[in-house]
Amino acid sequence: MQYDVTVIGSGPGGYVAAIRCAQLGLKTAMIEKYSTFGGTCLNVGCIPSKALLDSSEHYYNASHTFKTHGINLNDLSVDIAQMIKRKNEVVEQTTGGITFLMKKNKITTYQGVGSFVDKNTIKVTKAEGGEETISTKNVIIATGSKPTALPFLPIDKKRIITSTEALNLPEVPKHLIVIGGGVIGLELGSVYARLGAKVTVVEFMDGIIGTMDKTMSKELQKSLAKLGFEFLLSHKVTGAAVEGDKVTVTADSPKGEKVSIEGDYCIVAVGRTAYTEGLGLEKVGIQLEERGKKIPVNDHLETPVKGIYAIGDVVRGAMLAHKAEEEGVFVAETIAGQKPHINYNLIPGVVYTWPEVASVGFTEEQLKEQGRKYKTGSFPFKASGRARASMDIDGLVKVLADAQTDELLGVHMIGPRAADMIAEAVVAMEFRASAEDIGRICHAHPTFTEAFKEAALAATDNRALHI
């Protein structure tokens, strides 16, 4: 078979790239090594974790806040098997939707491992045995990432686990140890903390969610502490051992003292590593960069080999599903001869804990490092009528604006529905809006988004109205 474009990998970047290529009239093929489409995000990442986060949030509210709302319940309990069953149904429906989209857009799909024979020939090695080759003018590598392992800490997938196994635990842990204070660890820790587990986070850095604004880090740590989280910051993990149904994690404290933490499960969540094994990159002369982990690309996301592109987690930048999607569209339109654009500074980041954390643009720490003059304004949700009505008063919105021009430089939110609210900030910043612009836009009352307006007013000559 001869194709205009062949996409290797069916995650958010891959399947979106394939759809956009097909929309542009390019004969498109997509290769996926697993039995379902969607990659990590749809199968063992974004979608299933959000399903469990929603289920656990319902339980937590029922057990902690319903009585205040005047709702009395008796004999409340967790059915973890049903919770996971519902999660699996959500995943099945979502991945099935991708299968439908492939057929709708007349994209030919292959199941197996795709690897290069040469720059225009791809071999598909099938899981059940056998192989076939296809010819293609262009290739888009979208093979995603896998959980990063620590060489001194063996993962047995039973007691010492990754985020994948954490989605299918047979019970609610009594004490869950999370190695890594990043997005994945905190989200999965939240699931089980809400269901009654004690959660201890062991983090090498001096704060959690280290890539985000430090105000968000401090606020989230305070909120998670209310859930029962314990944080061991600036601790270096040195090992872990399993004995029966117990896990013991050892670490060095900031003072150099030996620390031992005992739990029944341990999630290793220290990041993700680009997945490039088995692609046969050496056959087309592509050498990995960034300590042998990332595929090098130019500003058009094309590798050093003409006609071979790479997107998503296998290239530089944040490992985010929506970043991969934008890159998938970008490459498809580039191949079709268009002139697409991505502003990498305006790709939002989100942590789906509760309260949620969302961020776009520069952090305050980055602006200080740049030596850029800026002004800041913030507004706490405890001063929001809508937040008080829903009992979601933790958190704040923080706005950073240029000291001279008032242009928005960064917006950082921790609070209810921040994941959805950040979109307004992204749109505003794409159009280079000022803080005053946001302050002069009418926001419906009572809504959570009024906090963004008030924070913008606070950054504009300290004009916040409700604090």
Question: What is the topology?
Answer:
Blueprint: E1 2-8, H1 12-23, E2 28-32, H2 39-44, H3 46-64, H4 80-104, E3 108-111, E4 113-118, E5 121-125, E6 131-141, E7 145-147, E8 160-161, H5 163-166, E9 175-179, H6 183-194, E10 198-202, H7 214-226, E11 229-232, E12 236-243, E13 246-252, E14 258-263, E15 265-268, E16 272-274, E17 308-310, H8 321-335, E18 349-351, E19 356-361, H9 364-370, E20 374-380, H10 385-390, E21 396-402, E22 408-415, H11 418-430, H12 435-440, H13 450-459
Parallel strand pairs: 1-2, 1-6, 2-3, 6-17, 8-15, 9-10, 9-15, 10-11
Antiparallel strand pairs: 4-5, 5-6, 7-16, 12-13, 13-14, 18-19, 19-22, 20-21, 21-22
Helix pairs in contact: 1-8, 3-4, 3-6
What would you say this structure looks like, in words?
This protein folds into three domains: about 1-145 and about 275-340, 3-Layer(bba) Sandwich (FAD/NAD(P)-binding domain), CATH 3.50.50.60; about 160-270, 3-Layer(bba) Sandwich (FAD/NAD(P)-binding domain); about 345-460, Enolase-like, domain 1 (2-Layer Sandwich), CATH 3.30.390.30. Helix 1 (about 10-25) packs parallel to helix 8 (about 320-335) and helix 3 packs parallel to helix 6. It contains 13 helices and 22 strands. The strands form five sheets. Strands 1, 2, 3, 4, 5, 6 and 17 form a seven-stranded mixed β-sheet that branches. It is an alpha/beta fold and about 475 residues long.
Short description:
The chain is an alpha/beta fold and 467 residues long. The protein is built from 13 helices and 22 strands.
